[in-house]
Amino acid sequence: MTQQTIVIVNTGCANISSVKFALERLGVSVTVSDDPAVIKGADKVFLPGVGAAGAAMTSITAKQLIPTLQGLTQPVLGVCLGMQLMVEQSDEATTGTIDCLKLLPGHVKRMQAGELRLPHMGWNTISPVGDSPLFKGLGEGTYFYFVHSFAVPVYEHTLASCEYGQTFSAAIQHNNFFGVQFHPERSGEAGAQLLTNFVNL
Predict the structure, then answer these.
(1) Helices 16-25 and 188-199 sit at what angle, rounded to 10 degrees?
(2) Dist CA 134 CA 192 (whole Å)
(3) CB 3.0 to 4.6 Å from 78: which of 83, 112, 133, 158, for a disulfide?
(4) pLDDT tens digit sequence for 120-165
(5) Structural domains in the chain?
(6) Strand 98-99 relative to strand 89-90: parallel, antiparallel, unpaired?
(7) Residue 89, CA distances (Å) to 98, 101, 127, 152 in order
(8) In the chain, what's the furthest Cα-to-Cα distance?
(9) Are 16 and 10 in contact (CB under 8 A)?
């Protein structure tokens, strides 16, 4: 891979070290920052997140990062909660719906898993939609590792879907903004391939 400036946004709500280590294993140099100038100057940006959307948005707002993130023109990859934060709104709030980053259309809803246990936790297969370079070499039935109780329904910006009591978006894209609901940094060879694909966009 060519040498690039890769920045992981320090949202204050993520296990950043696991994403950082996964990228470094691929030979990629990574910077973790919440400095708008550093984030804007990156070739590729990662937006990780774990926990609750409300707390994450509070942290991102306090760091005054929303205008910076909304203005990015380079490829950006949201991971797990980071993907959910990319859309317009989320139902994951005690007070109802909260506004998210509005980087691409979409609404996060609580999963309707029927008899299945939530959170959806563990390995599951994905079904790519179309021919996105993000899923190069990763076909139908590839396993990734998931941990979540909320999801974006399948819609026009879905890059890959997954089944767990319902069909939901395993990956989404709009313009330069990509998101994956699963954890590529915990998904073995398939996750490493997806991270490589993103860095090579």
Answers:
(1) 80
(2) 12
(3) 83
(4) 999 999 999 989 999 999 999 999 999 999 999 999 999 999 999 9
(5) 6-199 (3.40.50.880)
(6) antiparallel
(7) 6, 8, 25, 10
(8) 47
(9) yes
